[in-house]
TrEMBL record:
Residues passing through the membrane, by range: 29-51, 76-96, 191-215, 289-310
Name of the protein in its database record: Putative ATP-binding cassette transporter
GO molecular-function terms, A-Z: ABC-type transporter activity; ATP binding; ATP hydrolysis activity
Subcellular location, principal: membrane
Domain ABC transmembrane type-1: 63-335
Keywords of this entry: ATP-binding, Membrane, Nucleotide-binding, Transmembrane, Transmembrane helix, Transport
Gene Ontology, cellular component aspect: plasma membrane
SMART domains, sorted: AAA
Database matches in Gene3D superfamilies: ABC transporter type 1, transmembrane domain, P-loop containing nucleotide triphosphate hydrolases
Domain ABC transporter as annotated: residue spans: 368-559
Presence of keyword Cytoplasm: no
Topology with respect to the bilayer: Multi-pass membrane protein
Amino acid sequence: MSSVSRSSLRRDLSDAFALAVPFFRGASAWVAVPLAAAVIGCQLGLVAVAVRTNLWRNDFFQALQDRDWDRFVLQFWVYSAIGVALIGLTVAQQYLTQWLLIRWRSFLTERLLGNWLREGARPRSGMDGATDNPDQRVAEDTRLFATHVIGLTTGLVGSLASLASFAVILWGLSASVPLIAFGARYEVPGYLLWAAILYAAVGTWLTHAIGRHLIPLNFWQERREADFRYALVHARDHREPIALARGEAAERRILSERFAELVRNWYRLIARSALLGIFTGTYRHYALFFPYLVMSPLYFAGGMAFGALMQAGSAFNEVRNALSYFVTVYPRIAELAAATERLGGFERASVGMRTAALPRRAEGHARLQSKDLEVFDERGQVLARLESVSVGPGERILIVGPSGSGKTSLVRAWAGIAPRWRGEIRSSASNMLILSERPYLPLGSLRSVLSYPGATAAVPESALDKALEAVGLERLRSALDSLEWRDTLSTGERQRLAFARALIVQPDLLILDEATTGLDELAEGQMYGAMANGLNECSIISLMTSARLSSLHDRVLHL
């Protein structure tokens, strides 16, 4: 194994433990540990049933050979009892496994979302590549990880238990069944067990040699699928701009290119999977015949009863199955490795996100003060400069600057999410709200959007109606609980809706970053009038490209 492969394996194992251990140690342990123990207990019970079935095979086939009717009937009832135990344990294990899967996936989802969307967090430079398609990582990879870890761990425990149980049986049968080869008789202790180990070892080595390329192929297939889904969602969410630009053909070309990348990797994955399938299928097919081939000389020489032959063949295959566990589950291991790599990278990137450098708490009169403020990008280039600004309760300040002068960069610094900044920022505001040129409208009903980020139930109906009326959106009153309102709004109406949210949230500091670009001057005046009437003590900082609304502000600053 190359040093790169060893490093990748160590990282994947470290990521797997980091993702798995907290679920079984934290607050969820009181549910997780008993559930996992119950699932493993069911698996051990199934192994015990398999051992009893192996003993039954000797008695049943010997009864057939001896034409013993009474023993035959007895073995039928024994088999029925075995069936009841087998079905009961199987159903119980499936039920408990699904329950455990739900709890674990819920835990992982909450943990990943908590790191990714924690308050004030922002990505470090160069982290974007590690966090591509977070929707796919949270929605799909958590399911794959939990499903495969539970399934593979349970299967491994069952295989080890089967190996221990049937190795004893096979060793005992080997003592009473000598090896006959080329007409000679040999007493080889446990030769049936050694034959099973040799067969499984060769199969395992060849499986890894053929299938190891599946891990990177699965990783890239998941990424290509997620990229294609994102492109489809992007096209769906921008149907109108695409139509206005007559861009349908271009969008089809973009989607076709992404799908072609997906298909190219898919063909490589299919080819490698087919090669692995040919080998594993051949391996499993001849595995059923192999023990009887080994024991056939002794049986045809009359040195072995038919019942013992069937029992030995069954025990051999159980040992071979246990030792061949790696061969059987290799495709799932490849999927798990890919999911673990993606989840581990996502969590490292999320944990590595900077916690925003929030403005220091001011004890004075001003809602916001900044002095000698400079904002930089990740490379250290200056994006914006502002010598000094101070806004008191109820005061309105207009900051004017041309496009590209860094107005939005200043807003990011005041909010604490700028990548790098220098200077002094102090704020006494306990509830800051920022409205941008393209207001963010979260998923959900109109009622929940107006209440965002607060609880919907905390806002009375009258307050919602009053806010909509103040911004000229009375027609939306009947759509408060509808999910179909979003596509009916123009850019200006979305900006009006953002102002309505400000009236409901009641901030003590409102920053408007070109928040009225979709409105005419009359509508702009209406919005500022609504803010003056509904937010009496609120401090307002407006950032615009012109001073056309200077009459609605107390002071004007130029960048």
